[in-house]
Specification:
3 helices, three-stranded antiparallel β-sheet, alpha+beta, single chain
Amino acid sequence: MTKDKGDVYIGRCFDLCVGKGHALPVGHEDRTYKGRVVFGGNDVWTQDRDIAVFQELASQPATLEASCAADAYGCVEGHTIEQADAEQAYTQSVLGGTPTWVRLPKEQWPQAWLDAGYTDPVCPLILALYGHPDSGGYWERHCAEHLLAIGFATVPEWQSVFWHPDHQCLLVVY
């Protein structure tokens, strides 16, 4: 089937929890746990139980050369280098393409679902979620739109690298 005929994809979400800084002494402030919900992109089906075929919106991360160029630029007198993490980056963008529905872990179900006696509910996946094969591509589009709107320009031949002419700022997004 094709999207024109109304395909939907059905997958599942699951919880992950990892310990960060496990080598640090117990009680150290940097020894924490990080949890996230991810999409199981390895087990996705159409409504007809056919294997889902994604748009292949592969993300195009910046190259090692781009990172080295940013480091070199930051070493020039009068310049600095900074690094930052976009919190919950993928979920800042809307997931496009074929509509995707997900099964949630039962421990994440609202009480109303349990009270109603649901046995296998699904809900729409609206935001890009880590694990979905197309999430990286949608997030990169979202990020680029925002950067271009505030005066950054793309750097030709270097994916995910931006230049702001007024601020003389080189930005590598990964």
